[in-house]
Amino acid sequence: MKKAALYVTLALGLSALSVSYAADPAFPKAEAGKKVTLEVWSWVPGLDKTVASFTKAYPDINIKILNLGGGPATYTKLQTALKAGSGAPDVAQIEYGFLPSFADTGGLADLSKYGAGDYKKYFVPWTWGQVSPEGKAVYAIPQDTGPFAMVYRSDVLTKYGVTVPKTWAQYASAASAVNQKSAGKVKLGNFYATFAPWFMALAWADGGQFFKRDGDGWVQTLNNASAKKVLNYWNDMIKKGDVSTIGAFSADYWNATGAGTVASNFEAAWGPGGYAGSMKDKSAGLWRAAALPQWTAGSAIKSGNWGGSSNVVTTQSKNPKEATLFALWLNLSGTAITENWNNGGLFPASSAGLGLPALNDTSKNPSKFFGGQNISAVYAQASKGVNVNFQWAPWFPFANDNYNKQIDLMIKGKLTPDQALDAWQAETLANAKKEGYTVR
Questions:
Q1: What is the pLDDT of residues 173-201, one digit of tens each?
Q2: What is the domain extent for residue 154?
Q3: Distance between CA atoms of residues 348 and 337, nearest Å
Q4: Which one of 45, 169, 322, 385 counts the least CB within 10 Å of its CB?
Q5: Cis ω on the peptide bond leading into residue 394 (within 30° of 0)?
Q6: 86 and 19, same structural domain?
Q7: What is the pLDDT of residue 427?
Q8: Distance (Å, rounded) from C-alpha 84 to C-alpha 88?
Q9: In-domain check, residue 366
Q10: Same domain as 163, residue 239
Q11: First to last CA, the chain
């Protein structure tokens, strides 16, 4: 995958929502009598239950799952293994935004060699563009998507007399009210200071663009107007103590949400599954989902997208055919998609998967954890409000790490929001040029 071609345009065409799931496609046949073990790196909650169904169908293929932690924790170890030429798994989970950088290492197998190209028609078109940007090599199998919505504790909002905010102005007012009425013990929201895609999704909802192809080169604008608008908004609430800055996916965060000391957040479609899986019975049934607040009252619902992942097969795999089979089954089997939704809250990338009855089954998680609300409907609405013209650059991993540095300085009061974004832009731009990319 050449650097000049490493771009991803997000086009969330959800017209497939009305498609019903008829039957699984014909998967590649496993070699009879060949016993193999595949090592899979993934942070999807409950994946072991899904894998049990796979091994029942393919008893000669044993799956060993390793959860090294979400996103960055896994990527660091995977990059190290790919560059070292050893230690990589057979299959790994990679978010779309990070996929170009991994393909650029040469450590990902071209799955078209194992028949993956024949399954393009089963996925929502934009997701296939994420994993096969040139339409030839296939670097991964699409797994899920992450349109953004608001999740909140209904009991906490009721306790403090706060209604679900429909605008960002209302959200800030509610955050102030909750903080004051609870004497600082409860925060309405939480700012994820170490996940650039979370912040970018909020700016994305306002029309923000961070990377854009320009002929054979790129234009990078990490300090775009929407980014400055969003960061200044959140920094104001942080300085007032109206929102917290607890690390995402940490024990402290789950303890706070479970106890009701953090009452809301903005999560991708896969987020509710993480809430159900991580908090178990704590606060079960008390959560709800709603559309993202809007900057203008009464406007159409606009949203952004955070993450959404794919499954790659590394070139170090000794069983790439079986690994490809597993990746295809995991994301196209009705059984797998249903279990991944119920156990991990994965919003499917397959066209037929979006029409599975399981997504609307409110008696099971994650909807059950959310008080029996049909949260799939909320996220389906969010999907329709995502700006489809969004691109990721192959140097995004550096941008993600550098974001953490600048935001930490902002929270410590050493940089203003505008200064933090300008530094993020300047340092990331310099690094991209140093790596050989044509970018301005």
A1: 999 999 999 999 999 999 999 999 999 99
A2: 148-302+389-434
A3: 7
A4: 169
A5: no
A6: yes
A7: 98
A8: 9
A9: no
A10: yes
A11: 22
- Cα(45)–Cα(277) distance, integer angstroms: 6
Q: What are phi and psi of 371, to 5 degrees?
A: 65, 20
> Which of these, 363, 386, 387, lies nearest to 375 by C-alpha position?
363
Q: How far, CA to CA in Å, does 263 sit from each of 152, 159, 257, 288, 411?
A: 6, 11, 6, 11, 21
Give the Cα separation of 391 and 212 in Å (integer): 6
> Do 331 and 259 share a structural domain?
no
Maximal C-alpha separation, the chain: 66
One-letter identity of residue 115:
G
Q: Would residue 29 count as lying in a domain? A: yes
Q: What percent of the chain has pLDDT over 90?
A: 79
Structure confidence by residue, pLDDT tens digits, 307-363: 889 999 999 999 999 999 999 999 999 999 999 998 888 999 998 888 889 999 999
Closest residue by Cα to residue 403 from 381, 382, 427, 386: 427
Give the helix ranges, DSSP H, for 241-344: 251-259, 271-279, 320-332, 334-344
The total number of structural domains in the chain stands at: 2
CB atoms within 10 A of CB 251: 10
Cβ atoms < 10 Å from Cβ of 286: 19
* DSSP-derived 3-state class of residue 189: strand
Instruction: Determine the angle formed by the axes of helices 320-332 and 47-57, rounding to 10 degrees.
Output: 120
Q: Are residues 114 and 189 in the same domain?
A: no
Burial label for 435, CB within 10 Å (0-12, 13-18, 19+), is middle
Global pTM? 0.82
Whose CA is closest to 338, among 324, 349, 348, 325?
348
Residue 168 shares a structural domain with residue 127: no
Residues counted in the chain? 440
Is residue 3 pLDDT above 80, yes or no?
no
DSSP state for residue 167 in the 8-state scheme: B
Q: What is the pLDDT of residue 30?
A: 87
Residues 182 and 268 in one domain: yes
Q: C-alpha 137: how far from its chain's center?
A: 23
Inside any domain, residue 372: no
